[in-house]
Structure formats: C-alpha cells, structure tokens
TrEMBL record:
<dbReference type="InterPro" id="IPR003159">
    <property type="entry name" value="Lyase_8_central_dom"/>
</dbReference>
<dbReference type="Pfam" id="PF02278">
    <property type="entry name" value="Lyase_8"/>
</dbReference>
<feature type="active site">
    <location>
        <position position="353"/>
    </location>
</feature>
<dbReference type="InterPro" id="IPR011071">
    <property type="entry name" value="Lyase_8-like_C"/>
</dbReference>
<feature type="active site">
    <location>
        <position position="302"/>
    </location>
</feature>
<dbReference type="Pfam" id="PF08124">
    <property type="entry name" value="Lyase_8_N"/>
</dbReference>
<dbReference type="InterPro" id="IPR011013">
    <property type="entry name" value="Gal_mutarotase_sf_dom"/>
</dbReference>
<dbReference type="GO" id="GO:0005975">
    <property type="term" value="P:carbohydrate metabolic process"/>
</dbReference>
<dbReference type="InterPro" id="IPR006311">
    <property type="entry name" value="TAT_signal"/>
</dbReference>
<comment type="similarity">
    <text>Belongs to the polysaccharide lyase 8 family.</text>
</comment>
<keyword id="KW-0456">Lyase</keyword>
<dbReference type="InterPro" id="IPR038970">
    <property type="entry name" value="Lyase_8"/>
</dbReference>
<dbReference type="GO" id="GO:0030340">
    <property type="term" value="F:hyaluronate lyase activity"/>
</dbReference>
<dbReference type="GO" id="GO:0005576">
    <property type="term" value="C:extracellular region"/>
</dbReference>
<feature type="domain" description="Polysaccharide lyase family 8 C-terminal">
    <location>
        <begin position="706"/>
        <end position="768"/>
    </location>
</feature>
<feature type="domain" description="Polysaccharide lyase 8 N-terminal alpha-helical">
    <location>
        <begin position="86"/>
        <end position="384"/>
    </location>
</feature>
<dbReference type="GO" id="GO:0030246">
    <property type="term" value="F:carbohydrate binding"/>
</dbReference>
C-alpha cells in the first residue's frame, strides 16, 4: 500500500505505518453486529503465531488452556449456560412463526439459507465453497465471506418455524463445509495472507457462531479442531477500541465452545481498556466522539460495531463467574449516537470510508445502533430505561424510509415489539440540541424538522481515510463540509456519494483542480484552530482555520448555528497556485429533478443541464430544501445537472465494487473567488425548510446580523434570541460585547433576566482564557469548574481550559438587560468628529421613539429596522464607520429586548 504523495505546502500526512485497513465482513444477520476491524495489509506468509507466540503457546493441543485460579470453581454448567444464552440471543424460543412481527424475517432467513446451500460446492475435490468467494484466489476476502454464509445457514438450520429447521442434509453439508475449511484454508498451522482482519475477526466471529448453533452435533475432535484454528489466528484480544472488542468476542466465543475458562477470562479481561473513556486516540471520548485508527471519526462503522457487540457478550456470560457489564455503554448510546441519528440514518460524517460501500449507507449504520440499544435496553437499570426506552421508540418510529428492524433476529424483533407496545414508555419526539464533538472535529445542530452537520479536521484529526481501495474520492468530505438532513431522509442514503460531484461538496472552500484517487488521504491540517462552543446545548459557534491539502489555499471559516438558520462566514481566503477558488454553498441531490429554483423571486435554471450566474443575488431558494440569503449580496453561480455515477468510481474493493450506472439529478450553488484570491471572503445564511416567501422576507429583514468578518474575528448575532457567536482567530480580538486576549470561540445569550456565556479553546494551546462580556452582571447563578469571575460589571472571567480537550465551559449570571437608554448613552458618548450634529439629532429622535414604545410595551421592531437603515445611510459621511458599527451593534442587541 503506497502513499498518495506529500501535500504541497505545510501540513503532513498520517504516517503510513499508523494507517490500518478494514474489511466489513458479512453482517451477522439478526444481530446487527458489524464485522469491522483494522485491516492492515499483512505481508504474505506472516505467521499469526509469530506475532503472539506466547499466547499461542498457552493453547494446548486439545484447544484448551488450564483454568485460571479465580475460575477454578467453573463447571460444565457454566459453559452450558453460556452456550444456551448465546443461542437464545440468535434463535429465541416460544414464538409463533406466523406472527406478523417476525414472519418476514423468518422468510428472509429461509431464502438466504436456501440460496447459500443450493449454490455451495459440495464435491470432494472442491477448491472453494462459492465461486464468487474463491479461497484459492482471494484467500482472506473469501475466508470471511465463506464463514459468514455458513453462519447464516447454521442459523437457518437452528431456527424453528422455517422449512430448513433441523434439516439433516443441511446439517451434514454445513458441518462438512466447516471441517473442510479447517482442513484446507483455516488451518491451525496456517499463515495470514493478505488482510489480517479477515483471519482474526470477520472470519472467526461467524465461524464461532455457526459452531455454537450446531454444537450438539459436533464431536470433541471437531470442536477441538475448530477452536484450535481460531486460537491460532486470534490467540488473545489485540488492538484498540472496536478491534479490541471484536477480537475479545472471538476469544470468548472459542473459549465457550472449548470449555476453556482461561480463554473466556482472557477475552473478558481484554475488554477492560475499552470500557473507559479515552483521553486521546482510539475509543469513545467524553464528548461522544469515537476515534479509530488514531485520526478518524468512526461513530458509525467501527463505533457501531463495538456497541453492537458488547450487549451480546454481556448477555452470553451473564450469571457466570465471567459476568461483565458496564453502565458506560449506556452513556455511549446517548452521547455518541443520539445526536447523530436522523430519522433512522447515522450521519455519514462520522462513518469514515464506509460511505463508499453500497450496502452500508447511513441507515444501515443507524439500524445497527438501534439493534445495539435494544440489546442494552432489555437489561438496563430502571433509571436508564426512563430515557433509553423513549429514545429508542423515537429512533424506530422516526425512520420513514426503511424498517430499522428488518432482517433482525427473532429475539430482537420480540424485544422491539415489547417496547413499542408498552404504553408506559412514551415516544420522546425529535431531539433538539446543538453539540460539538470536539475530539473528532464534528458539529451537529438539530431542530425539530432539520439537522445540520459540519465536518472538519485539524492536527489531531485527519481529512479522510482511504485504504483497501475504498473511499477513493473522499478528498473534501471534511474540508468544512456541511450536511443538511431534512424530510428527504434518503438524501445521503440513495447513492449520494458515487453520484455527487466530489469537487463540490457543500460548505467547502476549495481550489479547482483534478485529484487522483485517494490523493491526500491522511492529511493533517497544520492549523490548530478547529472546533466550536455550545451554549446550553442549543446554540453553537464553530470554526475552521484550514491550510488545504496539496495547495497554498488558506481560509478561515465560521458557522453560527441559531434557532432557524445557520450563518456561514469566510475570510482570509488566499491562494497563489494559479487556480480558481470556489466556495460551495449547496450541492443537493434532487428527489424529482424538477424542484423549482428561484433567485431574487425569479425562476432560475429550470431544466437539467441549465447553468446560470446571478450577478447580484440577495437570496436563492430551492423548493423542498430551503433558502440561502446573502447579507452583502453575491455573484452566485447555479447549475442543475443530470449525473451518472457508479459505486466502482469510489471503491474498488471486491466486496463493494459495483459497475451499475446510477443516474441522479443535482442542484449546485457556489461562489467564485477567482484565480489566486487575496483575502477574499463570503457570507451567507442557510434557512433549512423555509419556503420562497419566507426566504424573501428574511432577505428584507434578516433575523441575524453579521457582526464581524475579518481575519482577526468573525461574529454573528441572532436578533430575536439575543445569541451572539464570536470566533476570535488572533489575540485581542473583539466583536460586539465580547473581547478576549487569546484565540477563543465564544457564545453569549442575553436573556430577559440572565446572561449565558460559554467559551472553548479550539487550539487547545491556552491554559487559561480571559474573556470580557460587556454586560452589567449582579451575581453569578451557576458556573462550570474552572471559571473564575474577575469582575461583574462588566462581566469579566478567566476560564481554565487546559485539559478541557476543546470542550466548552461557561456560566449563567443575573444582569441588567441592555435597553434603549443604554444605546442613547452610547450615542451621547460619541465625539462630534464621529457623529455630525444633524446625524446626532436624527438618531436621537429615532431613539426617543423607541424609548417611548419600550416604556409602553408596544411593538418596536419596525422602528428598530428603521434605525438600523438610518445608521447604514449615515455611515461613512455623517457617522464614522467605527461609530456606525458601534451604534448598529447596540441596535441589534435591542431586538431581543423589545416586542416584535
């Protein structure tokens, strides 16, 4: 596996030795357990025994090891119990096969069993079991595929209610195939060739399952041969995070089959490093991030594989000396998955290279999370069930595209039916939250009918993973890429990634150049300022200082996430490579291809293939998606196009390579900064789900204001909610009522009686951050650890952020809200050279009118807009630009204080 090349300019790539590959083996149908893992391309001929000789030596010729001292009391009853519990998790009991809740799943299992049985080679001279999984050609790939199909057949034989249940010929063919595998390809003296994951995880996991399901029909010699082979390749739990759990699962499984207490104990104890929060690198972090392979966000794929595997392990060993469980897993389900699951789909920005797999799109990952949560709900303590049950109901019922329970095992289906029928468990409703996954440079902002994701990278997180010939066009998927989820719940699930223009990913600012497949993979942004701050789990400011891979392009970009909109700002956009630079506002897959597009009220690009430039766009609207408002106006470029892609365009892995043409229609909206821009910028407001009329009104009277958009500070305010977001790029940056002495990300909300404040250090380089919030506080109501109040008027704090790992800290304080007299006082304090006498008189008259309306509690927003227009008209001649900015900022603060 060769590197794709070094970046041009600062920054570096993840060292190749730290990259790993992954192959997703067969989904163990009915469990939702994904066969995931690092798939380091091992050199042909590398011996598993050579890697872990001591562990292999501990395995005796009989496939067992001496029992550990603390397990000396283990009896055959414990192993019988574990086998029974393992079987029950897949097969279940006491159910009606005609039950509509489970009949479709049983029918699918029967069909799968017949398919694999009828196509399996059974001749004595066979070289493989299935012709599309040639063990004599694609050894490692075929190992996991073959065992996966055998486990499905074993489940078909073991499950009551279908015609293959108990079939003696099926049983004989199945056992003969397993015997053949360990005699010819999965031998106890074999060597790993190719992808180690197939030999150590995605092969032995289903092999263990198949052996367990037919255990009572295996001889001692067969059990010994099977478990010795598994022990040879997976002698102990290895690696980190998901891969450690999966290898532990393999070790526990073969220990249960062999009656090997030491192996079961080894596997259970191997979970210990995983059942804790990671402070860095692989694993779950306290903010809900999940990292695998050191640098890549993987709540989907690897993370789902981990949480889907643990409930099965817990259930399998329950009631024995090996019993293990940990409430931390419930926290992971809540913090790592609830924010990311939208109507059954798990957002692609947390699924790494798996977005390039046609059968593992966002709903597949979301359904696996549902399955994992169901397994945990059954045994959850009462306090946990109070929130887990309602959350699960929401996840299941909100999926209007696919059935999240389709293909699950009978026990899982029965668990789900019990939950859904339980009237004492309410459906929670849509999650409304705003969350920064600081440890993986991701942001999620959710409202009732839409959600917005931001995907970034830094020195800590790499741009994209592309190995095993997967995710070949992942170049820009984290370059400030934005993901809008709404009622079109299949938007990303319906061949988005193979058909979207990979050079125009929404949210990105990029130079226009062709890239080679996998080019730039593993690139680390040399800039540290990447992250965000959340206030009260409702509002977020996020930012990314990016030095783009393979380019001189640098940019500073911010996103301010409010109640009904997201304000996006860009500044300092500079490059000198002789190439054009663009900012992509939107690239939306169209559900019908005919969705209307309007620019400033006029229809635009009505037909497929149409392209247009709007030289003075104030707003653009895409029917069914929402509006885009340009506060300063923009020269906008629009295109409606028909595209045809193939999964093979973005993956060449044999498991997922598919050459089937996929026609899709797209609408693209972008801004052109020209060739070699110097300090270019942009501003736009996204209005998800807004109709054209709402978008037009917003353009006339926006609900937000851009407070600053410079290379030192970017800031925006939501007028009605009184929320201000400020991204300070350089020390002593100041915007509106906020100033700091170091780079920081700040969110402030001025309420009726309280002011809320939160700050983070996205650079993670400052131990303490000094922040002044220009309000007159009277007392502190609540403060996070590490927040020290220096003064109340104006509110000045010192916040210890060392060790916070990019997360937010803040406080709430009682204060005197901003009022019209405060703005009158500001005007009175401005010198004559800042405000001409005639302008002062006009502004005082307007403020007197506002004061009268405020005193009588009358609607005043129309007069506020008139005041802001007056300030803008006077700016630069009767009022200095600096004074006009100060006055306009004061007027903005009044929107949340006065009646609309």
């Amino acid at each position: 596996m060769n590197d794709a090349g070094n970046p041009a300019g600062p920054g570096h790539h993840v060292p190749l030795s730290r990259r790993h590959a992954l192959h997703l083996g067969a989904l163990l149908a009915g469990t939702g357990v994904l066969g995931l893992g690092q798939a380091h391309q091992a050199r042909a001929g590398t011996s598993a025994a050579g890697r872990t000789a001591a562990s292999v030596a501990a395995v005796t010729a009989a496939g067992t090891a001496p029992a550990a001292a603390d397990d000396a009391a283990d009896t055959s009853d414990d192993f019988a119990r574990m086998r029974a519990q393992w079987r029950a998790a897949f097969v279940g009991s006491d159910y009606d096969s005609a039950d509509p809740a489970i009949a479709p799943g049983l029918a699918q299992l029967a069909a799968d069993t017949h398919q694999w049985w009828s196509t399996m080679e059974t001749g004595a001279d066979r070289a493989y079991l299935w012709p599309d999984a040639r063990l004599d050609v694609q050894i490692s790939f075929a190992i996991s595929i073959s065992f996966g199909r055998l486990s499905r057949m074993a489940l078909g034989w073991a499950t009551p209610g279908i015609d293959t249940h108990g079939d003696p010929k099926l049983l004989a063919d199945l056992i003969a195939a397993m015997d053949w595998m360990v005699a010819h390809y999965y031998r106890e003296d074999g060597q790993i060739i190719g992808n180690w994951f197939e030999w150590m995880i995605s092969g032995p996991q289903p092999f263990n399952l198949a052996a367990m399901l037919v255990y009572d029909h295996l001889s001692a010699d067969q059990i010994g041969a099977y478990t010795r082979a598994v022990a040879h390749y997976t002698p102990e739990p290895i690696a980190t995070a998901a891969n450690r759990v999966l290898t532990a699962d393999v070790v526990i499984g073969r220990g249960i089959l062999a009656g090997d207490a030491a192996a079961v104990r080894l596997g259970v104890d191997g979970l210990a490093p995983v059942l804790a929060y990671a402070d860095a690198g692989d694993g779950f972090h306290r903010d809900g991030s999940f990292i695998q392979h050191d640098y890549y966000p993987y709540n989907g794929s690897y993370g789902v594989g981990l949480v889907a595997t643990l409930p099965g392990i817990f259930q399998r060993v329950a009631g024995t000396p090996f019993a293990v469980s940990d409430p931390i897993v419930y926290e992971w389900i809540r913090d790592a998955y609830d924010p990311l699951i939208w109507h059954g789909g798990l957002m692609d920005m947390a699924s790494g290279r798996v977005i390039a797999r046609h059968n593992e799109q966002d709903h597949n990952a979301g359904h696996a999370a549902v399955n994992a949560a169901l397994g945990l709900w059954v045994a959850a303590p009462p306090a946990t069930r109070t929130w887990l049950g309602p959350m699960l109901k929401e996840w299941i019922l909100a999926d209007t595209q696919d059935d999240p329970l389709a293909g699950r095992s009978v026990p899982v289906l029965l668990q789900a039916r019990t939950l859904l029928a339980d009237g004492s468990v309410p459906r929670r409703g849509p999650l409304v939250t705003s969350h920064v996954f600081a440890a993986m440079d991701r942001v999620v902002h959710r409202r009732t009918n839409w959600a917005y994701g931001i995907s970034m990278y830094s020195r800590r997180i790499a741009n994209f993973e592309s190995i095993n010939d997967e995710n070949l066009h992942g170049w820009l998927t984290a370059d400030g890429a934005t993901y809008l989820c709404d009622h079109q719940v299949d938007h990303y699930n319906d061949a988005f990634w193979p058909t979207v223009d990979p050079y125009r990913i929404p949210g990105t600012t990029v130079d226009v150049r062709e890239r080679a497949p996998m080019e730039g993979r593993g690139y680390l942004n040399p800039q540290d300022w990447v992250g965000g701050t959340t206030l009260a789990d409702r509002y977020t400011a996020a930012g990314m200082w990016l030095h783009s891979q393979g380019s001189s392009l640098v940019s500073r970009r911010s996103w301010f996430c409010f109640d009904d909109e997201v304000v996006a700002l860009g500044t300092g956009i500079t490059a000198h490579d002789g190439r054009r630079v663009e900012t992509v506002v939107e690239n939306r897959r169209l559900a019908t291809g005919s969705e209307a597009v309007m620019v400033n009220g006029t229809t635009a690009v009505p037909g497929l293939g149409d392209e247009a430039t709007a030289p003075a766009a104030r707003w653009v609207h895409l029917a069914g998606t929402g509006g885009y408002v340009f506060p300063a106006g923009a020269r906008a470029h629009l295109k409606r196009e028909h595209r045809v892609g193939r999964w093979s365009d973005i993956t060449q892995h044999p498991s997922w390579k598919d050459d089937t043409p996929l026609p899709r229609d797209y609408f693209t909206l972008w801004l052109d900064h020209g060739v070699d821009p110097d300090q270019a910028g942009y501003s736009y407001v996204l209005l998800p789900t807004a109709d054209a009329e709402t978008t037009s009104r917003y353009a006339e009277r926006p609900g937000t204001a851009v407070v600053a958009n410079t290379s030192r500070v970017q800031a925006a305010r939501a007028l009605n909610s009184g929320v201000l977001g400020v991204n300070v790029w350089a020390p002593l940056g100041a915007a509106s009522i906020v100033s700091t002495r170091a780079p920081a990300c700040v969110v402030v909300q001025e309420g009726d009686e309280e002011v809320g404040f939160a700050v983070s250090d996205p650079t993670r380089a400052t131990a303490k951050v000094w922040v002044r919030v220009g309000v007159a506080a009277s007392r502190v109501l609540a403060a996070d650890e590490g927040v020290r109040v220096i003064a109340l008027d104006p509110l000045t704090v010192e916040v210890t952020l060392g060790g916070a790992n990019g997360t937010s800290r803040g406080l709430r304080a009682a204060y005197r809200p901003w009022s019209v007299p405060d703005l009158q006082q500001v005007l009175a304090g401005l010198d004559a050279d800042e405000v001409a006498p005639s302008a002062r008189q006009a502004l005082n008259q307007a403020l007197d009118t506002l004061a009268d309306l405020a005193e009588r509690d009358r609607p005043a927003h129309a007069q506020l807009w008139a005041l802001r227009r007056k300030i803008a008209a006077l700016r630069g001649h009767a009022v200095s630009p600096e004074a006009a900015g100060t006055l306009d900022d004061g007027a903005q603060r009044l929107f949340a204080r006065l009646r609309p």
